[in-house]
Design goal:
With about 375 residues, this protein is an alpha/beta fold. The protein is built from eleven helices and eight strands. It has an eight-stranded parallel beta barrel, surrounded by four helices.
C-alpha cells in the first residue's frame, strides 16, 4: 500500500512538472502591425519624367495615393553612401522619407554600405572608405549609421543588403573575417540603438538555401527581425519549401520574420528595349502562377497569406520594384529590366495584385 501511495504521489508530481508545449505558452500572435510594404526606391528619379499613373478605376491619380488606398502601409528605400547620380543618396532618401511619413507610411531603410548595388555577389566598400584601416572603418560605420538615424529615423532598418557573404568586403566577409563582420555589424547596430528605442533592425539574407548556416553564424549579433529575399527565378519554385524555411528559422531563433523582397511578372512582354530579368516560361511557377495579371495577383496573395496565416512569427512582406515602369520611353535600352514585374501595367494603370496589400479584416 505504501509503495502504491508513493507511486501515485510521484505520478502526480511528474505530471504537474512536465514542460508546457510552446504553443500553449505563446498567445495568438498579434498581426495588427503586419507590414504590407513596397520598395519604390527609384520613384524620385522616375517622378522627374512626370509619368501619369492610373488607379484601378482607370482614373489619373497620384502614385503614392494609389499605394495608400490599396493598403500599402510601409515603404522600403535603399540608401547608398555616395552614388554617382545622387539618386538613393542620403539627401534624396531623407527628403523622400519625410514626405512619405507625412502621408502616414512607415519607413523601412535598406542601408547598402556601398556606393551602388550590394547583393550576395557584390559587397563593394564605398570608394571614400577603401583606404581606411579596419579600426577606422568600424568607427566610420558607427558615425555614418548615427548620421543616417538622425536624418531619417526609420521604423525599420537593414544593416546591409542581402548580406549572405557579409558586407564591406574584404573586411566584413562573413566566411573569412567572421569576427570583423560581427564587429562592423555591431558598430552599426550600436548606433541604431543609441538613436532610437523603437527602430527595429532587420538581418537580410537572399534566398532560402544556406539560411541555417547563415543565421547560426549570426545568432549572437544584435537584430530583431529575420528578412529573406524570395524570387522564383533565383531561389527556386517551391513555395512549400519557402513556407517550411520561414517557420523553422523563426521558431529556432525565436525571431519575427518577413519576406524582404519578392516580385512576379504579370506578362512576359516588354515595354522598352531594355532586357528584362524575367522573360521565359521556364522561370515561372507553372501551372499555378502564369505570367498574367491574375497569376501575379495570386502570387502576391499567396506570399501575404503565408506570412499572415501560416508562419506564426511572420510579420509582413515587401514587393520589390513596384514603381519600375518603362519610364525612359519604349525604345530605351538602359531603363527598366522590371516593367513586366511592376505593380502597374504598360499603360501605368494599377494592377489587380495591388488589391492584395489590403489585409483582410479579422486576420
Amino acid at each position: 500500500m505504501k509503495k502504491l501511495r508513493l507511486l501515485l504521489v510521484l505520478t502526480v508530481f511528474m505530471a504537474c512538472n512536465e514542460p508546457t508545449p510552446v504553443d500553449d505558452l505563446d498567445p495568438k500572435p498579434d498581426k495588427s502591425g503586419f507590414l504590407s510594404a513596397v520598395d519604390i526606391s527609384s520613384f524620385p528619379e522616375i517622378e522627374l519624367t512626370n509619368p501619369v499613373f492610373y488607379n484601378r478605376s482607370n482614373q489619373p491619380t497620384d502614385f503614392l495615393n494609389i499605394l495608400k488606398e490599396n493598403g500599402v502601409n510601409t515603404i522600403r528605400l535603399r540608401l547608398w553612401v555616395n552614388p554617382q547620380s545622387g539618386h538613393s543618396g542620403l539627401e534624396e532618401v531623407t527628403a523622400f522619407s519625410q514626405r512619405l511619413k507625412g502621408m502616414g507610411f512607415k519607413i523601412w531603410l535598406s542601408v547598402h554600405y556601398s556606393d551602388s548595388w550590394a547583393d550576395p555577389g557584390k559587397q563593394v566598400i564605398p570608394q571614400q572608405w577603401q583606404s581606411l584601416s579596419f579600426a577606422v572603418l568600424k568607427d566610420t560605420v558607427r558615425l555614418y549609421t548615427k548620421k543616417v538615424m538622425e536624418k531619417v529615423n526609420p521604423h525599420y532598418i537593414q544593416i546591409g543588403n542581402e548580406i549572405n557573404s557579409g558586407f564591406l568586403h574584404p573586411h566584413g566577409n562573413i566566411s573569412t573575417q567572421t569576427a570583423q563582420f560581427k564587429e562592423l555589424y555591431g558598430a552599426a547596430a550600436q548606433s541604431v540603438r543609441g538613436q532610437s528605442q523603437t527602430t527595429r533592425i532587420i538581418l537580410h539574407f537572399a534566398g532560402i538555401e544556406n539560411t541555417p548556416w547563415f543565421f547560426n553564424v549570426a545568432h549572437n549579433i544584435d537584430y530583431d527581425i529575420m528578412g529573406l529575399s524570395y524570387y522564383p527565378v533565383w531561389h527556386g519554385k517551391s513555395l512549400g519549401q519557402l513556407r517550411t524555411i520561414l517557420i523553422r528559422l523563426s521558431e529556432l531563433h525565436k525571431k519575427d520574420i518577413l519576406i524582404a523582397e519578392t516580385a512576379y511578372p504579370f506578362t512576359l512582354g516588354w515595354n522598352d528595349w531594355t532586357n528584362n530579368i524575367v522573360g521565359l516560361e521556364e522561370q515561372l511557377i507553372l501551372p499555378d502562377y502564369p505570367a498574367t495579371e491574375a497569376g501575379q495577383k495570386k502570387f502576391v496573395a499567396t506570399i501575404r497569406d503565408m506570412l499572415l496565416k501560416d508562419v506564426k512569427r511572420g510579420i509582413g512582406f515587401c514587393y520589390w520594384g513596384a514603381e519600375l515602369i518603362a519610364w525612359k520611353g519604349d525604345v530605351a535600352t538602359n531603363a527598366s529590366p522590371w516593367e513586366n514585374q511592376a505593380l502597374f501595367n504598360f499603360q501605368n494603370k494599377a494592377l489587380p495584385a495591388l488589391e492584395e496589400f489590403l489585409i483582410p479584416s479579422g486576420k
